[in-house]
Amino acid sequence: MSYVANTEAQRKEMLAACGLSSMEELFAAIPEELRPKSFDLLAGKSELEVRSYLSGLARRNYSHLVYFLGGGIYDHYIPAAVDALACRGEFTTSYTPYQPECSQGTLQAIYEYQTQICRLTGMEASNASLYDGGSALCEACHMALAATGRSRIVMDSGINPVYRQMIRTYTANLSIELAEAPLVLGQSSRDNLFSLLNGETAAVILQNPNFFGVVDDHSDIVAHCHEMGVLAVQSVYPIALALVKTPGEIGADIATGEGQSLGLPLGFGGPYLGFMATTRGLVRKMPGRVAGRTVDRNGRESFVLTLQAREQHIRREKATSNICTNQALCALRAHMYLSLVGREGIKEIANLCLAKTAYAMERFRAIPGVEVADCGPAFNEFVVRLSVDAAGLIGRLIDHGIAPGLPLGRFYPGMNEYLLVAVTEKRTKFEIGRLAETVEAVLCQ
Amino acid sequence: MPVIFEKSVPGRRGVRLPECDVPCKGDIPEACRRGRDAELCELSELDVVRHFTELSRRNFGIDTAFYPLGSCTMKYNPKVNEAVAGLDGFVNLHPFLPQLDRGGMFTQGAFQVMYELERLLCEISGMTAFTLHPMAGAHGELTGMMCIAAYHRDRGNRKTEVLIPDEAHGTNPSSAAIAGYRTRPMPTDRRSGMLDVGELEKLVSEETAAIMLTNPNTLGIFNTHIHRIAEIAHRHDALIYYDGANLNAVLGKFRPGDAGVDVMHINLHKTFSTPHGGGGPGAGPVGVRETLEPYLPISRVVKRRDGTYVLNYQYPKSIGYMAPFYGNFLVYLRALAYILVNGKQGLVEVSENAVLNANYVMHGLKDVYALPYDRPCMHEFVLSASRQAENGIRAMDIAKALIDCGFHPPTVYFPLIVKEALMIEPTETESKETLDAFIRAMREIAEKAETAPDEIRAAPQKTSVSRPDEAKAAREMDLCYRG
Ligand SMILES: Cc1ncc(COP(=O)(O)O)c(C=O)c1O
Fold first, then answer.
1. B126 CA distance to ligand 1 centroid (A)?
2. Does residue A364 lie within any of the structural domains?
3. Fewer CB within 10 A of the end CB, N or C, for chain A?
4. What local confidence, expressed as pLDDT, does residue B137 receive?
5. Helices A8-17 & B329-365 angle (0-180, nearest 10)
């Protein structure tokens, strides 16, 4: 079944119009020796059969767990209106808005999304989206290298370890230096960071809250960077920004982040949303699409893709980035989400995360043999030290329907007893209590 | 239509959240708090629903109109794919779950999706192995070029440049540059519309890391010499990168892997019908031949003897992480559904009908528009508005006039080697009636270009806005609402 509309009779008519008599003649340009050596696929199936096959695979996944698992991707509530609106065919089945007159819906939405990101981050200009939070940080590195003409990047170890690995991969073929500043007691160490800065340093990369969930005020680091002509890049968690000091307020030059928490499902890794915002001074160095507001011939407000001279279709090998297709529909969902929760709602969500996290920490503190790491203020994630191997504990909790967190030994050698626990507004007091009781019971066995 | 922030009413609320049910508040110290609230809008749910519904009505999509945007393969996006991508067991699955101890057992269904799709893409393309991690075509190109760089580094080759035909998509040179290479353009033969192999022989050297090819190329012409090009490249230990954006032309008719291609990507959001979402998300899986497999990004899904699947990270030569997890899972899940529904015969029909539809439209237009490369095309073809331009009607004017006829315009001014290019890709899912209506509209526009050019220059007039002032947009940089 190929979703082809034309009938056999129509095809014959069309072939005749082209002066041909068979479909095979259409492929005369492909010589015999280049024909497939094999094309061994199953016969097509009905919609019903494919649906039930894939439903069967879906049922084999443990998607019903109560998640205390975060690590940068969080189980937040998604208002029903987001799904209802985002599935409209006018949004889903359009391409990048190259022709503005018949794409005003997408373009205005991008402009509004950019505004939402600017208001959330306190920055001056946002792009239309990047692939995900990790690649956004990689793009920020490229941007800082190009903007400063320098060749060194200093990363704080509080950055998501997967993102740090991505930065290593993305920069492997460029002649640049990467340096990593270790944390001290779970927090960005000013001494460690500053000792790595030199005249070749393009940027310092920070994350707030950091991977261990610790909230920091990076203003002093940014000020020190600027004295040395170093750009400051901060990767942020958008829900936390409802309460936490923004990249704009600390004076960051580039803000990036993972937008999954803004109305995107867990989805086994994607599609997610990389966002990036910067200052007006750096806009022309920013990667990705940007929408701008202007007027049409009759003076009516209208929207277009703008500053395209930065992009690959015009600048080719000299472009700021190779990105073309981005995550537009995810950005649209984030925009819908922020519109629905609004100014008060986002604070409420953030406050719920904060309160429930505090409660979860309290419950963990009461478990004999468990320590809650004291690294500084937590937002919605924190580290606990169990008296046993954290990885081994997980399977037993999953048997109880709970994904209790991310064992840090996965990324940090020597931290096998540590577990990173995330709590969102979706978790109830009852669920948090059950987590604590089950951990306690398993530890006592 | 006002921007959403102008509709905001202080105190109005949309979604309601649960009351706090815990006896704690938590605390963020003053120094770490933001000074002022983020000024998000204050709207009711209905306000928001009306706003976005109204926005959607200002968009063309495949669901509303014929969308022959060349190089983008805007075919129908079947709804069953959406249903499948909405299944709870996939949507609510945390990507870290399989990285927990024994965690792979909790995501076997998702792994099977990945494994089966990789195997299907291998069979369709003739490549040995695939990674599903790249999140779009350009991301695939970058991944592929990184694998190529790792391959050369491993062999101690000092390679500095990548050769790219002048008709190539802009992402090709851009991706090669970001992977650390200098790029050199190669000319297209003016008569055949194919890469000039003689010129290639002159340009290729021991410095050449790779040659990037799109086949059929962006002119919609199949390069019959691909095997020879691969031989020339391999003689210099250079690799062939194949941009699979145009795979919709050749399903079941040609496999890059059989023709000496070393690395390729496929745009699932083109050939395999995942919706483009007004700009993304897409998926750009990368396929490699055996010699390049060790360099693919981690993790990889492998099938064990007992039939279960696990994530494997033990590839010491891997380039590392291109994506935080496993790529755009819910996107490529749709592509799997599409391939299963089509099956072998369906995929062959896809390409046959895509090529037929393109040739049919080309035949219906080539007497009124210049066709710089006048030969049978594959899934798309490139006209030139050069004749009309003599009367002051440019490709962009024709595009705007088409909007008033209810059609999304073709790609314009690309490929760069065709003046006043109009790149038309009808796709296989469009009916003869639609194609006939499009041909009629294009012919009427050509006629009006002579008889009533001002009408064309004034187009579009039926849309919510007429042509926006792009110079003003670039000059003023109003990128963020500050009401
Ligand atoms: C020929 C060609 N190559 C590469 C790309 C880049 O793909 P993507 O937009 O998915 O990054 C495109 C699509 O725009 C294309 O048409």
1. 21
2. yes
3. C
4. 98
5. 50
Whether A210 has a pLDDT exceeding 90, the answer reads yes
CA distance to A87, A136, B62, B415, per residue, from A152 (Å): 43, 18, 46, 37
User: Where do the structural domains in chain B lie, given as residue ranges?
Assistant: 4-56, 82-340, 349-457
**pLDDT more than 90, % of chain B:** 99
Dihedral, CA of residue B77, residue B81, residue B85 and residue B88, to nearest 10: 140
Cβ neighbours of residue B362 under 8 Å, at least 6 residues apart?
Answer: B371, B377, B381, B383, B424
Q: Where are the alpha helices (DSSP H) in B155-274?
A: 171-178, 197-203, 226-235
Residues 437-456, chain B, touching A (beta carbon < 8 A): none
* Cβ-defined contact of A26 to B376 (cutoff 8 Å): yes
User: Could you tell me if A296 and A364 lie in one domain?
Assistant: no
Report the pLDDT value the prediction gives residue B284, as an integer from 0 to 100. Answer: 98
A229 & A216 share domain: yes
Probe ligand 1: pick from B143, B267, B378, max atoms within 8 Å of CB? B267
Which of A282, A311, A338 lies at the terminal end of a domain, its last residue? A338
Q: Which among B43, B100, B139 is the nearest to A407, CB-wise?
A: B100
Q: Indicate the class that CATH gives domain B349-457.
A: alpha beta
pLDDT per residue as tens digits for the range A76-118: 999 999 999 999 999 999 999 999 999 999 999 999 999 999 9
Between CA B478 and CA B474 the distance in angstroms is 8
Q: What pLDDT, on the 0 to 100 scale, is given for residue A395?
A: 86
What CATH number should be reported for the domain holding residue A438? 3.90.1150.10
What per-residue confidence (pLDDT) applies to B402? 98
Residue pair B193/B222 in contact (Cβ under 8 Å)? The answer is no
pLDDT of residue A302: 98
Do A284 and A298 belong to one domain? yes
The answer regarding whether domain B82-340 maps to CATH 3.40.640.10 reads yes
Q: Which of B40, B113, B179 sits opposite A57 (nearest CB)?
A: B113
State if pTM tops 0.95: yes
CB A218 within 8 A of CB B32: no
In a domain, A415, yes or no: yes
A395 CB-contact burial (10 Å; exposed 0-12 / middle 13-18 / buried 19+): middle
Cis peptide before A151 (omega within 30 of 0): no
* Average of per-residue pLDDT values in chain A: 96
